[in-house]
Amino acid sequence: MKRRVVSTLLLAIMLIGVIAAGSTSTRAQGFPSLGFTLYQGSVTVDGQPAADGLEIRARIIGTDFESRAVTTSGGRYIALQVGPESGANGNELEFSLENQIIATTQDIYLLPNCSMESCPTSRVFDLTFPSSPLEPTPVPSLPARYSGFVSAGGVIPPDATQLSIRIGSWYEATGGTVSGGDFSIIVDPQDILLTGEPIEFFLAGIKASQTVPYQPGEIVTNVILTFSALSTPTPVPTPTPVPTPTPVPTPTPVPTSVPTPTSVPQPTATPEPTRTPTAVPTSKPVPTATPTPTPMPTPMAATATAIPVTPVVEVVEEDEGGGGLCSANPGGPASGGQIGLLLAPLALAFWVRMRRKTTEATVD
User: Fold this and answer.
1) Is the pTM for the entire model greater than 0.85?
2) Backbone dihedral angles phi then psi of residue 174, each to the nearest 5 degrees
3) Which of 77, 292, 325, 330 could form a disulfide linkage to 337, CB 3.0–4.6 angstroms apart?
4) CA distances, 20 to each of 7, 16, 28, 29, 149 (Å)
5) pLDDT tens-digit series, residues 249-304
């Protein structure tokens, strides 16, 4: 028991001596193992906070030193290691964005003195870049073909199961075929920078346990991929078809009869008798009645007083209307007026004769 304790103590003393010797040797050479500076701070690109995933590097001007890249996140960068680099104290330190844009802010490189201060040191230094970097143009690469055997949960997946791949954060491809457990897929990212990047395989969205490096232009066979058991899709019950009701014909609406307004009887106008135009007979000249000469009376006795007899001449006036007693009917028998005119002298003579006789009788 005591021998084991002694052996352990001797081993510990020897280890401490080796470490101390290494530290002394390192200090003698002037390169402390932790003699570097860790930079951090905000990153502004074209006046805006930097997008996530942009690479930042540091270079000591006048030397071959270039730091490893760190990526931005939330508009900041952290843990950018600068140094150690001997003989570079006081040199300018520049920062680049995506190996394209140089920051407008520069720093001075100082090698930490680990004998006087704790190492590594930390420095907060904000970076400002005047413009955004250009998207790198990918160099085309040849497509590659990968094939082999696939299983999911220890069983062969159905042939219709979807197989896809992914390289990095942006390239994805689908179209892989699965048949009887054998798979095959073409990988063609057309970017030579992805050479050697791991290819991730997905079966129905489940990631495989294995990855294969991308090799442009190669045909890689005998790749064995294993996946977790695929989820069994829940069968969807088939809905019972609902019988379609027989459409009932819509009754045609009977149009409502609109009552015809009763017409108010209008008084029947008495037709005026048709006026027959009266033919105006052409008036013929009425012959002027020629007075019948009165026969001279027979001289009577001297005692008899002669009574002058004035012949009566009947003047017949012509009727302006074309008619009258004395009018003659054209083309017909003589009218009553005409007959009267013809008999008037006889009547006058008869009357004169009778007058005379009366006078004579009175005288006697």
Assistant:
1) no
2) -120, 180
3) 325
4) 20, 6, 12, 14, 55
5) 776 766 666 666 666 556 655 556 556 555 444 455 555 555 555 555 544 443 44
